[in-house]
Write a structure and sequence with these properties.
The protein is mainly beta and about 260 residues long. About 10% of the residues lie in helices and about 70% in strands.
Amino acid sequence: MIQHKLVLFVGLLLFTTIPALATPLISVGISTWSTGVTGTVRDTANNLNTNVNLENDLHIGRHLNSGIYIAFDNPLPLLPSLRLSYDRILSNGSGNTQQNFVFGGDTYVANAKAQGRALLKQGSALFFWAPLDNPLVDVKIGFEIRWIELNVAVSGQGTTTAPGGVGQPFQAHGSAGGVVWLPMLNAGFTWHLPAGFEVSSDGSLVRFGSSYLYDARVGVGYSFGPGLTASLGYRRLRMHLDSARIGLNGSAQFSGLYAGLGWHF
């Protein structure tokens, strides 16, 4: 009798578990992001308070960048799902500076040729739950651990002051930046439409002292059939850094259209 009950229990367990596991548990994706960079930064590692404009002084323009992700959907209740992602955002440019400024320990001359580069690398581990998940609407909430490395580099005509007070020009090179780990709150919403379309929004936010960072996106998606999806939308990442935790302070924004492909299996 006990053996029959045990067989029945195992059968019911398999019957209720296998359909749940038939739902795709792993998804991977790639994306491209047309990233425009704006804002001002200052080199705090050298105790400098000069604000350098990323557009007007360094002429950093819009560039295509890429990112990847892999997500594991947990079918078990209460336990979170996991999404790992990585972005590398590189933008550069050249032009005449609009002001004299100090960066990386060197003084750069106004109206002189300069090259600028902004590099942002970030990795993320997002743990999330789906309190609402049905054929019409998905709502997700979670927390994120994000690693950020930000670096701004400048090269151009610098100047030094000789004992006689005459500036001596030279080719200067300087950079400033640092690494920071941030815990962030995350929330997302997806509205499923007919014919395989969907509208979604997602955002992460953290504030520490007078500094903050948010990363938000809104877009539309389309499912081509089993496993393959495409997305198109707009993304904005804004940071205001006013902390000794990183050698580069100021306000910078990375924004623009993105497109992506994903596979579920």
